[in-house]
């Protein structure tokens, strides 16, 4: 589906109408460029756009298929960029991923979105209100999208920090918690975030270094700003992964400690029952000469004795921390 | 065994007949090349082919012996490439490996297959129907084989993802499962996949950089596409390996938790038997003055008492989560 | 808030008065520079300063927002440096972090502090009493701040060494201690220190190499001194992290050893009760011909027998280390 | 001890007789070279040889002392190479190490062997029968020794693969095995193999790159072949080390699982004894009105009841997998 | 304290007397140099020496303060080197560290020692007896000190190997040993050795490469020899660290195995007591018709029965490896 397509001239949108082919023919002055936005395009839609802008077939195939790794590929007159978008779904405590493919030449940008996420729409809206950035042409568009996408990463990283804090609280709570499944799931999601973030560093570095043809040298500080955010996400994610590993080990240690506590509690309880049983056994012996057996209050005495012994054991175990 | 040998000219197969020696003599125009396909060749077969195309003895030795590491070696007028093929055998949940050795010069390609796998046959069939690629000569053939082989890796990686998902489900199921053997086996297979995939990255990178003599610069984007798939396999495999390690740790934690649960269950059960035993012991004492012993319903009363105590304990343990 | 602003000429403070705009206009001779110190500045304050010194908007944004990674960014006529400050709060055994952003050009330094910490004030005081360093201009100011900040790191590292020593003592003490939470917390703080320290190495390296424009080559040995301290912090922190991991493993091993000891102690205790119970059971049997039952001292004899057996078991278990 | 010394000319051994000093004087034509083989030489023997060929004193000291790391050192007119030899002793399941030091100049090779291993003798024998390689001079000798030594590594790696397979079988067998000592020993041996193999890669790489003076460029493919085998050993050894770590973890998991199984088995067994004890306790109570006590077959009935209860428990536990 | 100071000319000590200032004035011929040896110098002593030889204040500060990292710093006319010395104290099984700071220019060497260790004295003694090395001037002195210090590392590494062997024996002995504290301590010492050894590699590499001004190119093989020993220490230490980790894991596994063995032993012991208790309970039942109760030898029979059952269980458990 073609979501939006427009001609931009000197930092503002030109209401030119028509399909992308006619739009491109209208790029007459230097700095003019067309931005076509596609969303889960059909084979035919992408084919037409590819034809208009002369996109490389391999890149087009990648843009259609989705499930690509983040990457930057240079072709003769254009480059092709794949970004992963990330967002956090609160209801499921899960990280979802989408994909944006971008073709950019000196006078056009074609963006292809897979999955949900409105980074592209909001990037376009914001750009159209900041002519200063828009005047940078395709480079400005790229910066704007990068900025949105990486802001999304930061938001996800913040949510993951909260999740790790929760797990931490749970692990060290005195309650019996089984956190291993949750830690596993979170580690899995962190791995997913890492797969989106890590391969992006190298391409972004090329924008920062200003070695991508068609992107103006002046834009470098802006890309550096995005790269800095990306580095922050990467550091956070690495740090969380390490913390989760430590939390997991602590969780296992807690299980051992609890088992030890339980064992001692059980043993103390057993002693409190077994010692009176021994006393009952003694008064159940059949000796002819057992003075207590003839006592009028022998029976209550024996029960009292059991009670005192059991109580005494209870006190002893309580004091020594076994109960 | 010589599987197939043919002369290719201008993107299509020339029905020229004859053995490979005669085929080679027929390569008259620039771009002509001979493709000889061998499968588990005898010493004699390979010797003849080596003689016709002037293959380096060390490379020939490697091609015959199999069990080589993936590698790319340059000789004066040819290069020698070893690839590992991978496929997944559903019946055994196992990854199998084969090997393809390729000798390529400016006017010939000699492919040697060890083990099963029909990457070579299908590559040839498909190439013969796409003259555009075939016209690239030996470079096109190489691309086509690389593409097939790496597609095979992707398929294996997908199967491994499923296996890891299954293990994950098993580890976190409430059932008592002993997953360590399965995790071990899977880790072993992942190591095998890694041995096929990792050493291939460097040679493939040389094709992408276009520094392999005899392979046209224009082919670089195609090799880059294959390299991208290879990187995806490598990332998946690394990620799975990490997940398996985490899953294994979680499995060990689950064992501990279950042991703890069992211990508490057992202790609760023991208490339910031991307390009535104490009561029986008490009424088995031989005191002369034990009023209950003379009661008409003393016996049923004692049994009832045992039942009530046992039942009470059962309720208490049930509520506190020990049973 | 503007904390302090002054004009420096030839190594000493010029009592020139006025706001930073008027101060800057007074920089007439080469080597003159203005140092403006801000603390958690309002949007308006920073805007004015930015206007006076021509600070880059992206850097200004970073300086206002705080929570940046340590970094060094070069702009055309200035550079922008972000440092994390660290200090140890004894009451909470916790490491706290602050942030200092520094803009520096050939004739000005603007420092922005977030959070507590008086590195900037003490750096200014000390500098004003050492004209030799102050004469180096903005480079001297930078060195002085770097020196203070890294000295703060060294102090924190020393405190962490003490914390690890305490944990070590606790882990290997014969007492039952649950150190996992404390180890976890310390690992978390070490990760925080690392996030402050590690990214600083690269920018500091650039000062050491003397490749930062506007900082005099002669200052290199001084920056090398700071870099050396930073390396010491980094090494200490890495080493502590490794020790903590080992201490954690040892802690888990101690738990296992204790559980084993407990189990044997419990078993020995159980035997001491259960064997007399068997004896009582035997003398509770109803055989007609049991000579002991008729003995005058049969009952005391049986009790004595139980006592001897229990005492004997106690001695045996004591000797074999089970009790 | 001087094992063998000979003059080689144009690919074959010249029966020239005499000690090494006289042999060297006979090297008249280009390509002539002397090969002196020493085994655990005395201080005096090596001193004489060093004098004849002008060996550097530091290299000579290393060659005498043994226990060197594998290394390649260049001196003005010669180079010095240290190799570790490895072999597997079946009786002890252990890897043994020896050492070969090689001095080589344009017209001589001096080899010094420490420990057992006959790589040098067999290398000489084989070389003397392949004049083609021998004609390469000292470079050919080096290649031949390298080839032998690395073949020895491959043989050791194959044995280690078998050992790991055995451990794997043992770990996952249902038997109670204590594999940790064996895994430890094997890890230790793998570390030893690694110490022989890893430092060799860099020097061998220099031969492959053809940057070692005095070794002919044409020999590069041969050295590349050896380097390839070395890489295979390195990969195998790394892979085995990883597998052993995983196997060890699985072993620990198996211990836990077995402990759990044992605990449940024991508990079930205890229940089968304790429940009849309760029944006996009940019929041991002294109530006046217990109808069963008067029954003629009360006693067999009670025994039967105990038997049924015990049998019933046995069935229940068997079915639920506790026994 | 000034330990020794002397003027050296052409490889031998010149008995020139006087303090270091007068000694320096006597360096008249090229190759002459003064070597001043200080030990824990006072502020004043070092100040005077610094003044005589023009030492850089920052380096002097480092030399006085001690607790520096090993490093090599170049100043205009001199360089400054910090080395850690290590030795093993048998009584405490502990590694102790000292520190040597060296200032060297073309005509002087100033060595400052902190802590014990007589590397400097023995280096001077030996040098004075080998004029060949001494003739190299300050470079020769440096080599000699490096050689001593690294020999000290080798000695410490050998002691650590013995310690690890002892731990290994202890871990795998059938005795109950608690090795975790010892392994921890050893790991801590290995970390200390590593902190002395690792940072030295880079500076030593510069001497090997011959890029340190004032050190003669001819000395490179000697420094290479030292670097080789350093590499051996580094490898040994890394390898020991890995072995200790594995030994620790094995230790934990042994604890688990022992716990399992104990549990089974305890259970078997419990069964041997509990089953006779059941028999006693049976003959304690109050049925009117229990033929055994009337038998003349009923009581001994019952005891015999208990004995046989207990003995039988003992045999069964012994055979199945539970006892």
Write up what this structure looks like.
The structure is a homopentamer of 323-residue chains. The first copy, chain A, has 323 residues and is an alpha+beta fold. Chain A folds into 2 domains: 2-254, 2-Layer Sandwich (Beta Polymerase, domain 2), CATH 3.30.460.20; 256-320, Magnesium transport protein CorA, transmembrane region (Methane Monooxygenase Hydroxylase, Chain G, domain 1). Helices cover 60% and strands 16% of the residues of chain A. Chain A is built from 10 helices and 7 strands. A 7-stranded mixed β-sheet of chain A has the order 2-1-3-7-6-5-4, with helices on both faces. In chain A, strand 6 and strand 7 (108-114) form a beta hairpin. The radius of gyration of chain A is 35 Å and the shape is rod-shaped. Chain A starts with a strand and ends with a helix. Chains in contact: A-B, A-C, B-D, C-E, D-E.
Radius of gyration of chain A, in Å, reads 35 Å
Mean pLDDT across the residues of chain A is: 89
The major sheet of chain A is characterized as: 7 strands, mixed
| Secondary structure: helix percent of chain A | 55-70%
User: What topology, given as strand order, has the largest sheet of chain A?
Assistant: 2-1-3-7-6-5-4
Number of helices of chain A: 10
| Whole-number count of domains of chain A | 2
Oligomer: homopentamer
Helix and strand element order of chain A: EEHEHHEEEEHHHHHHH
Low-confidence stretches of chain A: none
* Structure summary, number of beta strands of chain A: 7
Tell me the fraction of residues in β-strands of chain A, as a range: 15-25%
CATH homologous superfamily grouping of the largest domain in chain A: CorA soluble domain-like
């Amino acid at each position: 589906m073609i979501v939006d397509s427009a001609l931009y001239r000197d930092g503002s949108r030109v209401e030119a109408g028509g399909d992308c082919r006619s739009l491109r023919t209208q790029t007459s002055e230097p700095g003019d460029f067309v931005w076509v936005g596609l969303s889960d395009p059909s084979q035919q839609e992408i084919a037409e756009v590819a034809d208009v802008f002369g996109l490389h077939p391999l890149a087009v195939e990648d843009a259609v298929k989705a499930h690509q790794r983040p990457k930057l590929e240079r072709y003769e007159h254009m480059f092709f960029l794949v970004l992963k978008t990330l967002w956090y779904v609160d209801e499921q405590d899960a990280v979802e991923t989408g994909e944006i493919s971008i073709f950019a030449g000196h006078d056009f940008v074609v963006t292809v979105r897979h999955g949900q996420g409105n980074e592209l729409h909001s990037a376009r809206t914001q750009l159209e209100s900041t002519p200063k950035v828009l005047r940078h042409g395709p480079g400005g568009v790229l910066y704007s999208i990068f900025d949105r996408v990486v802001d999304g990463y930061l938001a996800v990283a913040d949510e993951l920090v909260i999740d790790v804090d929760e797990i931490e609280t749970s692990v060290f709570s005195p309650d019996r918690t089984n956190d291993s499944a949750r830690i596993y799931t979170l580690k899995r999601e962190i791995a997913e975030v890492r797969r989106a973030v890590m391969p992006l560093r190298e391409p972004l570095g090329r924008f920062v270094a200003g070695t991508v043809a068609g992107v103006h040298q002046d834009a470098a500080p802006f890309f550096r700003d995005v790269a800095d955010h990306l580095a922050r996400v990467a550091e956070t994610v690495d740090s969380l992964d390490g913390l989760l590993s430590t939390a997991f080990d602590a969780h296992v240690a807690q299980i051992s400690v609890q088992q030890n506590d339980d064992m001692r509690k059980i043993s103390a309880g057993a002693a409190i029952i077994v010692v009176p049983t021994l006393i009952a056994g003694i008064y159940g012996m059949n000796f002819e000469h057992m003075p207590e057996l003839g006592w009028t209050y022998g029976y209550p005495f024996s029960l009292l004795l059991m009670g005192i012994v059991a109580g005494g054991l209870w006190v002893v175990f309580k004091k020594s921390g076994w109960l």
